[in-house]
What we know:
The protein is mostly helical. 78% of the residues lie in helices and 2% in strands.
Amino acid sequence: xxxxxxxxxxxxxxxxxxxxxxxxxxxxxxxxxxxxxxxxxxxxxxxxxxxxxxxxxxxxxxxxxxxxxxxxxxxxxxxxxxxxxxxxxxxxxxxxxxxxxxxxxxxxxxxxxxxxxxxxxxxxxxxxxxxxxxxxxxxxxxxxxxxxxxxxxxxxxxxxxxxxxxxxxxxxxxxxxxxxxxxxxxxxxxxxxxxxxxxxxxxxxxxxxxxxxxxxxxxxxxxxxxx
Length: 227
């Protein structure tokens, strides 16, 4: 069996994965943040224990994000890898590493959930220290995932620019703003305060680019033939 996918179909898949991972990441992050992730650890753990379903949905969405990130890297590799194969492979590997760190951060979130449930049932104060460590590990892993993301984005967005899958101005938007994410968020992981306005320019990019690609290549199909 041989699958033959039209270029437009591949581009459509690229747009879908770009948009989906942006949406699942945003919703999953908001769900957890709404539990009071910036409050005292005792209050956070009580909220986590009282909203088990919300935490589970957040974890699930972030795992979905990790999977789709890899699919996104593959789709860019398939779409624009012919421009520079080594660069495309490196970008894909960086995205895979990002997805791995994101998944690891959710393992810590799961541990925080279980610790929070134990704390609310026993009120053992020693569990607060464990909860704080798990939360810090979760936060650190998620923020450090931005390093491979930023490096991969610089490579893969450059390939999108050269392949002309998206307009030059749109590709440059990603290329110019992703380094801000690459530098600022890891600094935040080490407790360095960074003005949030530096992160704002990149935030809409993935949504806008994903929607643009879907609209641009929506009138297509995936042609599968068996030989």
